[in-house]
Every structure is written in C-alpha cells, then in structure tokens.
Amino acid sequence: MESNGEIESSLSRSNGGEDRRVGLIFDERICKHYAPAEEDHPECPDRILAIWSLLNSSGLAKRCIILKAKDVEDNHLALVHTKKHISLIKSISSVNSESKRSRLAARFNSIYFSEGSTEAASLAAGSVIEAAEKVAKGELDSAFAIVRPPGHHAVEGEPMGFCLYNNVAIATSYLLNERRDLGINKILIVDWDVHHGNGTQKMFYKDPRVLFFSVHRYDSGTFYPSGHDGSYIMTGEDSGAGHNINVPWEHGRCGDADYLALWDNILIPVAKVFNPDMIIVSAGFDAAIGDPLGGCRITPHGYSIMLDKLMEFAGGKIVMALEGGYNLNSIATSAWACVDVLLHGKAPNVVSEAYPFASTWRVIQEVRRELSTYWPVLGGELPEKTINKTTQIAILSSDYEDKTEDIVLSVPEVPTIEDVIQPLSNLKIDLDSQVDQEANMKPSWRSELSKVDVWYASYGSNMKMSRFRCYIEGGQVEGMMRLCVGSMDKSKPKGIIWKTFPHRLFFARERTATWGPGGVAFLHPNSNVQEKTHLCLYKITLEQFNDVLLQENGLNLETSHPLFDSAALQTIQTEKSILVELVQRGWYHNVVYLGNEGDIPVLTMTCSLSDVDNFISGKFPINPPCKEYANTLITGLVEGEQLSEEEASAYIKEASSKPL
Ligand code: Q9C
Ligand code: ZN
C-alpha cells in the first residue's frame, strides 16, 4: 500500500479545500523520445512541455498533486503485448546508430525511434498505471498522465501511428486482471483522439468488462489509421458484443456542437446503463481547433463540457492519458480546460447556439440503430425537431448582448493561448517567429484562395454596385455612416449577374454601425418555394469573399487564417451552410451555399438558423430598414434592371412587414 501521508503532505490547495484531489504526472525524461532532427515530427517533446508550462503558469498545477512518472513492469506490458513486441521496444536503447534505428523504425507504420524511446515508452505506460491505481484506490479523485509516446494505435504485436506501448490498454488490463482487490470491475474507455483507437479496440474486442468508445474521423475509411476497423459496424464480439462503440465522422470540421450531440445521444445514455467503476480517457487533443492533422474544431470549452458530462459516472473516478494533439497552443489550452474541470468538477455553463452538421445526425442515427439491440436506451428515433437543427458547424457562443452595433466583439469566454500562455517564459515554442511572420508578410492563404472563384450573392445593400465596390476598393457611399477599408485584392468582380432564389428576405436588428437606426437585410438560410428573392451575384475570388465576410462582420483583414477556406468550400456543397465560428458574434456569420452557376459555387452570407428562431420568438428585434438603407436597396434593384422603382419599393416594403 502507498502511504496516504505522502500524498496528503504534497497537497496544497489555493481555494480553501474545495478542489478535488487531482493527480498530474509529468516527467522530463519522456522528452528523450524524439524524431531525427531533420524530420520535424509533430509528435515532439514540446507537446508535453507546452501543456506542463501552461498548467504551471496558470496556477492549476499547484492545486494538483504532482507525481513522478514510474517505469512499467514487464509482466504488465505482457498483459496486452507480445514478448516480441516488448523485446523490440526494449532493444531500441541499445541500437546506438541513428541510421540503424531509422531502418528498424521503417519496418512499422508511422514510427520513429531515438535512443531514449525505450525509457520514454516505459515511463508513459508506467505512469498511466500509476495514475489509474491511485484513482482506483481512492488516493486521488482523478488524474491526468501527461505522457508520450501515445498509445492507442499500438497493437498486441507492433508499434504504430507514433505509439509504442498501448498505455491505456495496459492500465485497463492491470486494474481488471491484476488488481481485482481494488474493486474496479467495469471500465469505460473514452477515446476522443481524432484518430480511431484501433489498438485498444482490438485488445478488448471480446471483453465485456471494457466498454470501448471511440469517436474519430473516418472519411469512408480513408483517414488514418484507414481501413474499416473504425466503422460503426465494429461492435464487439462474443461476450464483448455491444461493448465496442465507434462513431466515425464522415469528414473533418466537426466541433463542439457535433461532439455534444454525440455525448447527449449516445455516450452518456449508454454510460448510464453500463455504469462503469472507472473512466479512462484516451485524451488526444488532435480534434482540437487548430490541430494540423485533425481538421476538427473542438474548443477548450467543448472539451470541458465533454469531460464534465463524464464526471457524473464512477464517482468522478476519471483517468486521462494524453494521446495525440499537435498544435502546441491547442493542446495546452485544451488540457488546461480539462484539468480545471477535474479540479472543481463543473464546466462553465454556457448556452450553445450552434447546431451539428447534417452528417453528424446521420452518423449518430446509424450508430444508434446498429447498437440498439445491445443498448435498448439507443432504440427509437430521435425527435424530428432535434435532427432538423442542422448544417452548421460552430462553437458555443454567449447570447447577443449588444444590439446596437453590427458586430458585438467581446472577449471570448474560451481562453485563447494569448490569454493564458502569455506569462510563459520557460517555454521553448517558436511562438514569436510565427507572430512575426504573420505581421510582416501576406499570409499564404491569400495567394491560395486568390486562385479560386466564387459567386458572392447579395440581397441587401450590396445589390447596389457602388456600395459593393466599397467592400472591394474601399470607400463610403451615400447613407453610410462609416468608411469601408475594402479588400486586400482590389480587382473588380469578373462578372455580375442577377438571379432569384426561393429564400425569404427579411429585415431585423435595431440599428447598425453602417446605416444607423433600423433593421438590416437577412436571407432565411432555408429555402421555401413560396419565396422569391432577388440576388445580385458578383464573381470574385475566394480571397475577396473572405474579405467581404470579414468586413460584413466588422473584423480586421489582418488575419492569419481565412474564415472560409477551400475545405469549407468543399464541405458547404454537401452541408448547404457553414457557421463561421470565428465571427460567431457577427450578424452575417452563416455562409450559405445556393447552388452552382456554371461550375462556380454561389455563396451568400446571412444570420444563423438559431438567430432566425430568436427573431421569430421576439428575443431579437425585427425592424424595417431605415430610409437610406431601403433607398440603397431600391436603387440597386433599379440600376440592375430587375424591378421598376415602384416594384422595388413594394418588394422591400413587403419584406419589411410580412411576419417571419
Ligand atoms: N500518410 C496519434 O494521434 N499519420 N497518432 C501518418 C501517413 C499518422 C496519429 C500519415 C498519424 C498518427 C496518436
Ligand atoms: Zn490522433
């Protein structure tokens, strides 16, 4: 038995004993596993340093119980790995030429070795065991093993996908097989790494004591580790039938709304029935927003809600083990958000305005159907009104407070790295050079997106050519209360055409910075055959489209990332609309795809469906446009030879008065 005294004495709480006992395992020796210098590998030692630095500088680490890493014992490795695999990993430290190690590593899928790999792998596996054992004993309420190399791709007989030993599987097996005395008989493994946990799945595929849940990008079996092991039809075998749950996203860009829909409609209901004695999280942070490999969009706040929802099980006995995650800022802030939840067991309560993708509901329904024979709680269709709220990818946002400006830009409640990492001085991340680059040169997204054409479809004041030109060339026309900066690329539209679309035009909000008091135009994001709205289409580049989107939402053009990139352009053609989360507080943050003109996609920007709900309920005001604004629209329609002046006035009047 470990002495409780040792742990108690290392406790130092900053908030009067309200914190739960959270263990953190960190050990610098784990940095001795690194890729050959010329490789510039994403799975690098800085990952754990970034997390550790932020936990310290933010003050969270000192509220936790810090534990040193422990080496794994051979017999514990042997619970899930073959003798051959174990001796391979152990042999690496004695292979002392880099070229020999490279040749050895090349025999495996996505693996590198350094001289210190043996030690790091041993410490990673040993630490997750240590964390799990202390939580099982009740010496800790929960723990986070900040370890690498990661583990969930490693299979019985070989390393794979940056993983040497399967750390989580080893700890799980250890508790279930070697420490029956601790009373942990059922373990839920939640693998939220963006990649499928193929190794872990295999190890417990027939084991009913383990409920393995993995949510990952699948992309029809093309996303790493590729193949069909990550399919939802893989539900477990023999007595483990039903105890393997895969949720395979069809594409990237999934964010908080998608993951929360999944939590609420699959994971949490099943966890209630399974009633685990402990939860082990394969906590990769490569589904985080900003990750270079994942392409998903979970915010730190999203992670905190996902984790918080798990806290109601097993008396909060949660062990987190780091897996992937390759953007240093993203993994540090995500880990920070998780530790914060472990400490007080409550995620900040924020109302979600966002809806999942249509494809997310599709996947959730498929998984529910597949598993409902094992988990009756998943039986029955989801309510129409739930699954109809779709198509928008987004993050959580707070309520609109300020209704007096076009945009309400306030401090986001999710801390950015700038909010929390600023005080870090001992961190060797090359943040500065990145910032310099962004300040001095045109970011590369601009030249990339300047090669792509889109039709930007306008239904408001931009129908008037001279007004729209302010967004391209910069300027201010009659009735406008402020100057537009214009786009970076000031070249004229390559074409202009008019079309009508079956979407409702309406006017809402109280006043705008540009036009003063009165509502501004919105297009209902959903189509309706009863409606016929005139839109003026400008053929501009995707780069210019981004600059229009930025200006419409009151943002600065000096942005290091596009709001709407080529991937978004791909996605929107199946999803119909995309909520641009970076401008979630802007009014025109919903980009809607209206079809193709020739072979060029037609895009417009409007409010989100949830805003429409708020306009209907009266939470946000509906208002006719002010005179100057209405006149701009009318002259736009007249100059464009779409309607006579009388017809145009009647058209605007109808849109301003007809109930939504
Ligand atoms: N074309 C983890 O996140 N990618 N592993 C290889 C080869 C490997 C990710 C791409 C990604 C492994 C733990
Ligand atoms: Zn991963």
UniProtKB/TrEMBL annotation:
<protein>
    <recommendedName>
        <fullName>histone deacetylase</fullName>
        <ecNumber>3.5.1.98</ecNumber>
    </recommendedName>
</protein>
<dbReference type="InterPro" id="IPR023801">
    <property type="entry name" value="His_deacetylse_dom"/>
</dbReference>
<keyword id="KW-0678">Repressor</keyword>
<keyword id="KW-0156">Chromatin regulator</keyword>
<comment type="similarity">
    <text>Belongs to the histone deacetylase family. HD type 2 subfamily.</text>
</comment>
<feature type="domain" description="Histone deacetylase">
    <location>
        <begin position="41"/>
        <end position="341"/>
    </location>
</feature>
<dbReference type="GO" id="GO:0050793">
    <property type="term" value="P:regulation of developmental process"/>
</dbReference>
<keyword id="KW-0479">Metal-binding</keyword>
<dbReference type="GO" id="GO:0046872">
    <property type="term" value="F:metal ion binding"/>
</dbReference>
<dbReference type="GO" id="GO:0005737">
    <property type="term" value="C:cytoplasm"/>
</dbReference>
<keyword id="KW-0862">Zinc</keyword>
<keyword id="KW-0804">Transcription</keyword>
<keyword id="KW-0805">Transcription regulation</keyword>
<dbReference type="Pfam" id="PF00850">
    <property type="entry name" value="Hist_deacetyl"/>
</dbReference>
<keyword id="KW-0539">Nucleus</keyword>
<dbReference type="GO" id="GO:0141221">
    <property type="term" value="F:histone deacetylase activity, hydrolytic mechanism"/>
</dbReference>
<dbReference type="GO" id="GO:0040029">
    <property type="term" value="P:epigenetic regulation of gene expression"/>
</dbReference>
<dbReference type="GO" id="GO:0000118">
    <property type="term" value="C:histone deacetylase complex"/>
</dbReference>
<keyword id="KW-0378">Hydrolase</keyword>
